[in-house]
Amino acid sequence: xxxxxxxxxxxxxxxxxxxxxxxxxxxxxxxxxxxxxxxxxxxxxxxxxxxxxxxxxxxxxxxxxxxxxxxxxxxxxxxxxxxxxxxxxxxxxxxxxxxxxxxxxxxxxxxxxxxxxxxxxxxxxxxxxxxxxxxxxxxxxxxxxxxxxxxxxxxxxxxxxxxxxxxxxxxxxxxxxxxxxxxxxxxxxxxxxxxxxxxxxxxxxxxxxxxxxxxxxxxxxxxxxxxxxxxxxxxxxxxxxxxxxxxxxxxxxxxxxxxxxxxxxxxxxxxxxxxxxxxxxxxxxxxxxxxxxxxxxxxxxxxxxxxxxxxxxxxxxxxxxxxxxxxxxxxxxxxxxxxxxxxxxxxxxxxxx
Amino acid sequence: xxxxxxxxxxxxxxxxxxxxxxxxxxxxxxxxxxxxxxxxxxxxxxxxxxxxxxxxxxxxxxxxxxxxxx
Lengths: 353, 70
Fold this sequence. Notes:
- The complex is a heterodimer of chains A (about 350) and B (about 70).
- With about 350 residues, chain A is mainly beta.
- Chain A has a single domain (about 55-350), classed as Methylamine Dehydrogenase, Chain H.
- Chain A contains three helices and 28 strands.
- Chain A has helices at about 10-35, 40-45, 140-145, and strands at about 55-60, 70-75, 80-85, 90-95, 100-105, 110-115, 120-125, 130-135, 145-150, 155-160, 165-170, 175-180, 185-190, 200-205, 210-215, 220-225, 230-235, 240-245, 255-260, 265, 270-275, 285-290, 295-300, 305-310, 315-320, 330-335, 340-345, 350.
- Chain A is globular and about 65 Å long.
- Chain B has a single domain (about 5-60), classed as G Protein Gi Gamma 2, CATH 4.10.260.
- The longest helix of chain B is centred in the N-terminal third of the chain and has 20 residues, at about 5-20.
- Chain B is elongated, with a radius of gyration of 26 Å.
- The termini of chain B are far apart.
- Classes of the chains: A mainly beta (about 350), B mainly alpha (about 70).
- Chain A: Belongs to the WD repeat G protein beta family.
- Chain A: Keywords: Coiled coil, Repeat, Transducer, WD repeat.
- Chain A: It holds the Pfam family WD40_Gbeta.
- Chain A: This is Guanine nucleotide-binding protein subunit beta-5.
């Protein structure tokens, strides 16, 4: 490209680009501030408080021999897959607590696992930098029929099937996200923009599956257009790593959780932060968040072994779920909203309902 | 590419990104709040973790037997 060649005025160009970037940032701040006409919790004051939440521990799933790092509910609303530092995946029947399948991987620290939309495949990976797909069949065949779909240049922290069993979206410690074709292993799109490890991704619930959000150790959350590979919106505010991101069920907001011991709610149409979920007494980081099906409750798993329930609208903590004996690494509401699963460094998964 | 032109390239990407973000349409927070409250209110009845089950019998995760250890 001619205009990339070093020229005497390259430094002028650089100066003008830096100047423009500076002005655009100021303009963005002004525009966002202009529309900040009220607080969510002020509007929510007139609403009835959440009186009583009757969520009890129902099941404890024991079987992993090391930290549970990730879990995912099956689309059948009954099975859970979990991945662990012990290098194993386990498929559980959450109703009976039976272990139905074991998969041993040639790696430890399986940081991510995800069911395909059909429920017939699982994708997983971690410190091996790869995303691998297993069909769910009898145990012997599962290992034999595995397929390596994609490889990052650092650990794979998160994976998700965006539309069908044919594609997988991954996030990585190499600061990128990537969309892979399962059949061919082809890289369909890569997503560059973060300047730190990508820790979490989530899909927009209500669209055609072309928007996703990512959270990163660069303290940012980005909204991406999957087709163009561009960042559509970016949200800042956290003072430390963003470990988890989740779309509100309405599709119009995202929740984030961070090592700075706060969760935040960013509204996409207002293009700004609209709530902070934090307390003086909470000094531990958050590893995972999820919403109840209406989006009124925000569940957050903390490093202090607790799960906190927040009222999304009033920004108040409603209660804590005690039970885990180590960091809570993952929380997820079941697809029909009847239960919450929590995974922990105490080697167990618990189901609350 | 030498260092200068590659950092120019990088800076162009940053500026393009900011231009895109600056050009998006925004709505006041009041409207966002109203929409979020509306969505939640409309879906509260389907939210078992929030409102509970009409009867514990329909909770698929309840203990099956009444003789559970407390």
